[in-house]
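Annotators were shown the component list below and the corresponding predicted structure, then asked to write short factual statements about the assembly.
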Amino acid sequence: MTDAIPRSVRSFPSGERRPRAWWLVYIPLTILFIFAVAPLLLTWFTAFKTDQQQLVSPYGLPLPPTLDNLGEAWTVGRFSIYFKNSLIISIADVIGMVVISSLAGYAFARLRFPGQKLLLYGLLVGLTIPVAAIIIPLYLTMRDFHLLNTYSSVIIADIALAAPIFVFIMRAFFKDLPGELDDAARVDGANELQIFWQIMLPLARPGLMTVALLEFLWSWNDLLLPLVFLVSDDLRTLPVGMLFFQGRFTIDYGLMSAGVLILSLPVTLLFLIFQRDFVKGLASGALKG
Amino acid sequence: MIGFLGPRNEGRSAPVAFEHVVKRFGAVTAVDDLSLDVPDGEMLVLLGPSGCGKTTSLRMLAGLESISGGQIRIGDTVVNELPPRARDIAMVFQSYALYAHLTVYENLAYPLRVRKLPKAEIDRRVRDVAGVVQIGELLERKPKALSGGQRQRVALGRAIIRRPAVFLMDEPLSNLDAKLRLHTRGELKRFQRELATTTIYVTHDQAEAMTLADRLAIMDRGILQQVGRPKEVYAKPASVFVAGFLGSPPMNLLDVRVTSVAGSPGLEIAGTSIPATGSLGARLGTLAPDQREVILGVRPEEVALSRETSGDRVPGEVFVVEDLGNEILVTLDLGGQFVMARMPSDYPAEMGDHLWFGFDSERAHLFDTVSQRRIE
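Structure shown to annotators:
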């Protein structure tokens, strides 16, 4: 496959001079970038425009910007409540997932216990099940446990459904750590919990960052589970609120765009801040064994 | 120099004993009936090729590997069932196994920290040990920012800070470059002497083993071949394996036939019969009458080459000459069997020269073809 890439491009990262075929890389990337970012930017701009500005220059910059749409969405559109709900669920998801994936990943990677292979394969099966396929039994289970219309229903289901992939990611990270490390800690006098907590976990930090960020993204953007499990308007998350909001204020593009901004800005910022760790995490462990 | 331990690691060091120790991995026996006593304060080097069971033996002693049979003692305690932290040992690993997220100071302090020593005591000992292994200025650095030699010192420091009863070292020098390895080897020997603590050192490098060991224990395929002081083992290898493993270049081992020359015992080497004089003749005399074949061992430095023969030499052709600067290695083809000779660098030999191979019969070694054991 690498043969298809011109030789001059392949040597670019380490070479000093710009290769002749650089446009083969940059032009497709630029087009992709425009496709990915333009709709988002357009919506963000619209959020800061008055109705009149929207009509006069639908694609232009919001000059001067107005905060009216944002204010109205936040209060009248109840986005303050949705925001709080999303935050509670996403943070709980992240905490739960970091705890579970690091413990289970560590066990699968560095401990030996009966039934290990079987459990791992079971987990693999978990990777293949689409949520939509089991949403009805899941709903019935939540109902029988009297969890419907609580944060817990979404948090528990979120964690359970995403656990396989994150356990795999953490397993790969722990597997990558040198084999003699835990031996050294054992000889130095550490017990199993100390080895995990004081030695292994700090070294798997890039992995934990990846898990935390990805899980936050997923649960923040998740629509299906909160839509099905959370009936009361006071418990709705941002994506669900957005959905109903769309029904109520179909024509008000400014208000809707403000909703999109509130929904998308936190994850975008989070990603921009942590993208270095995120990419490093993915590259260093997650894709191996 | 190692003042914080007192002049010697008094009352702390303990002897080690392996008693019929066996380790099986499924159907594979990695260590087979190993019995070995290591007296208090001794530096014992476990030597052998990779896969010979030396590291497994060390790991069983450390408690990192379970024991399939027999028992291991440290001092008077049978440690078979004790976890590593209860065995009063410290270990230096091949990869050093430093904790990458901790500074050098925290690495050194870790064994004391998990034992919940008071902070002031930890601090005092870390600074003492850092002085001993000469890493005082590096305490605030992370392992990543250290050279190989510095990392090795930190690993060593982390081992001695505990004042354990036994040191275990698993090829601690093999990741260093050649020059640093020589230097560190010398230091290690001094440390061990000054600490006077029982040390078990695993290596596959025979030069390292010869120089460091009070006693050598050579293993092959899970079986202990020979134990003894390096000089003894070198002078009297107990088996063909030991003979071939110790020494660089290794001992020449020739398949020879037992004959008689004019009524007295002789050897037929590559079709040429020569008389076996002195103790060599006596040793041949102890063989069973029907044993016609033995293995003759001659160290390269004990090979004599000449351009003439007086009837006790074997003819050959120079196969290759390797110049090492201070000496040359001459390989002689005796008609299918090869002999390497270590000669002074000004020795005149060219490829294709016809030379005669001879040896000092008092210093030649004989081994049984079947059992591969030494014939005395």
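Statements collected:
1. The interface with chain A takes residues 59, 62-64, 83-85, 89-91, 93-95, 97, 99-101, 110-111, 114-115, 158, 162, 168 of chain B (CB under 8 Å).
2. The domain at 252-368 of chain B is CATH 2.40.50.140 (OB fold (Dihydrolipoamide Acetyltransferase, E2P)).
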